[in-house]
Amino acid sequence: MGSYAARLGLLALLLTSAPGWSQTPSTADRPTPDLSVPGLPPGHQPERLYGEKLLATIKIPQRPPSPPVVLWVSPTGSDTGDGSPAHPFATPARAQAAVRDLNRDRDVIVRLAGGVYRLAEPLRFSASDGGQAGHLVRWEAADGAKPVISGGDRVTGWRLADPAKGIWAADIPRGVDPRQIWVNDRLARRATLEVGRQAFRFHDWGMEIVDPAWRGLADVPDQKRIEVEGTGWFTDRHAMVERIEGDRIVMQQPGWRNNIIGYDTIARPVSEASARLFLVNALAFLREPGQWYADPAAGRLYYKPRAGEDLGTASVVLPRLSMLISIAGTYDTPVKDLQFKGVSFQHTSWLEPSGPQGYASQQSGAFLAGPLPDYPQEPMRDCSWGCWAFEAARNHWRQQPAAIQVAAATRILFEGGEFAHLGQVALGIGNNADANDSGIGLGAIAVEVSRNLFTDLSGGAIMVGGVTPDAHHPPRPEMGVRDILIRNNRIRTVSQDYREQAAILVTYATAPVILHNDVSDTPYDGIDVGWGWGVNDPGGSSAYRTRERGYYDQPGNLVYDTPTILRDAVIFGNRVHSVKQWYGDGGAIYHLSADPGGLIAENYIYDVPGGIGIYLDEGSRYLTVRNNVVDRVDVWLNVNTLDFNLPRRTAMDDLATGNWFRDGRARGTLTDYLNNRMVDNVEVKGDAWPVGARAVMERSGIQQDDAPRR
User: Which N-terminal residues, if any, form the signal peptide (predicted)?
Assistant: First the structure.
């Protein structure tokens, strides 16, 4: 091709000979428009800003809110109205239908006037009931109002039925057979007799009467509605009688058989000294003030008033519904952006324990149900501290359905409201599918529960997460329970009928935050986080590989090499007191299984006589326990390291540092071998609490000046 210079010459020749090419274009081909440009003003150079000054100049554009549509509801309104202030709807169901026509392109507010809204059936919120395309639906109390969503009816027309015994009666609809009633906003007890355990001998068919003084039970009518309740070290078990003949109390199945195997059973509780036994629900048992009995066949309710109660003026409420609210979409289309502010939820009764299943409690709302395969021939001999048949059922435990249920939902808020006079767990968030009216479980994301009162409940206040394999290892991300915030709630007088339930329970969840709540007056634990006893953590638990338990020998009980979704749990700034009033097991704050990033900090725990303040139970790992104040307990910190299982390790990699305690001791193996460390914890003598401890006490519990964030 020749030299480089020759090639350049050839290129120039080709360009100059190309059509339209000119080395000297004319002036007309190069116009120069006359553009007048204003000069910059003096001092136009911006000041160099740093740090906070620069951050202060940042303005993040937000989408301006569109004016919301407001629908009004009043007990004195009419469902033929238009939802305006002048013509409000009468029922929440009518307002719900109206929301679906409006929420596609704007926010909708349903404003509830004060009064009681008695539901004919539960309210069920699907994806079409929440905000659409980033908009919001909020159900809220009108200014200064207290709207009550109720599943019950008033009972009136009382008359003195038995003057000698002081028993009154009123008519109720035939067939109604509740487990709870409330008199003047206070739970009343079903007719109950406490009996000595030594009066009976336990069998797989029921109970044998060995004390002749109890032979009169065979003459009590309506025997199939009598219930046997037994409380132990950490369980509260319920089973129904089939019939009583001579010295035999024959029990309904499978409830009775499920209640006599496992751990802490009716027949063989962990501690005979603390176990108690009750016979419940017969008119012959109605002897104490504040107790009642319903006769569904006759349509009659009997009640023995407490001192000072006048049934002519008293408010007596009989629940009709087993739940009030279901919020559930699907995993592909969850309910989004739904809020409840200032609303009170009241009056339900969960009825399943009154049937053949009973309530075979295992711990904190989880229970056995249905016939168990390979049931042991000698259940009390061979399965009173676990067995293969029991361990095969562990991953199939059910959960108690809550009165208000949330699953397959995102950005749900309950704020400034009340959960009271409910016959089970009040609020269930992302629980098992079997605990949801919708049939959809789990999948609760970004749910907030703030500034509510939970009180006078038969079960626990809040139950988060499920207990099945799908709960701890979700097969798809949308099924996980994540980002649950429980803050500034007052929780008191809960778990009155199902005593084994913690006030707040989180089983499996990612980044749950339990912050600045006040928890008191509970029979069992205040705050529980974690589930599974370590069996579902990476590598499993060696304690469940024993021949006696044989957990991993059972079909479907897997050894996972990946962690559960439980991580980054925070229990911070809570005030927990006067808990553990019934049971020796558990703790005011209790934890189970591995929780990377878990933090228990700056909580104030007190008045738990004979009990445990902070309990890290089986498999608890990677937890930091710091700057807590623990007072008037027996054990301030208990770490269950399963010492019988050493040198195999279970609870390990935990740090307790900077805590203050008085009248308590630490228990458990805290050694370098387990990497469990105690650093700079301070035992306080007398009343000389250090300044740091007093600051934690003062900051704990509900923060009145902490404004809601949403």
Answer: 1-22
